Amino acid sequence: MDARTAKLWAAQDRHVGDRQRLFETVSRSIDANKVLYPGCYVDISPSMIFDDVTYVDNDKQFPKFFDDEDGVREIIDAQRDTKTRYKFRSIHTDYTSGLEIRDRSVDLLVSLYAGFVSEHCTRHLKVGGSLLVNASHGDASMASIDARYELTGVLTSRDNNYIFATTNLASYFMPKKDEDVTIERLHELGRGIPYKKSAFAYLFTRTS
Fold first, then answer.
1. What is the C-alpha separation between 66 and 47, in angstroms, rounded?
2. 87, pLDDT greater than 90
3. Which of 60, 76, 109, 122 is the least buried, fewest Cβ under 10 Å from its Cβ?
4. Which run of H or of E encompasses 178?
């Protein structure tokens, strides 16, 4: 592993193992193999859990990191519990410009701290597949008003672990203020709106 790869990963994984624990919890909660992760920067923790991951980002550090494939695999191999074969792919582009990925071909779409991923990339998610999304940049709010999605679970953080729950889901995405949540409003804000109850992240199922 070259020094640049090690340094970029160390900066990404500054809360050691946190993202890995998140994806471990997700993997226990849904049936997924093929993952699409737009706006990932150099977060390769999904590959420690899932066998087929496509990473997308337009940051200039992104291709430099993934060019060291042996180093990336060294990081992944050190954390994978299984010895099953896995693969990953990196695409250096802005996900909003369109991706050469088949429609309805992935099981899990990841949207963490990366803008309105669901708005641009839902086309690639299978019907019945899952969207993992957090509140940053408003994409959870966007998914909550998207007729193609149904909220099917929430993830909360406790004692450095993640807990998945499927109860009382109707209590989420209730605005603190009496206001209409619209696509236009979310674009204007560039972030989500305050809700009476929130979680660290949400799992939506694509229903249509």
1. 13
2. yes
3. 60
4. none
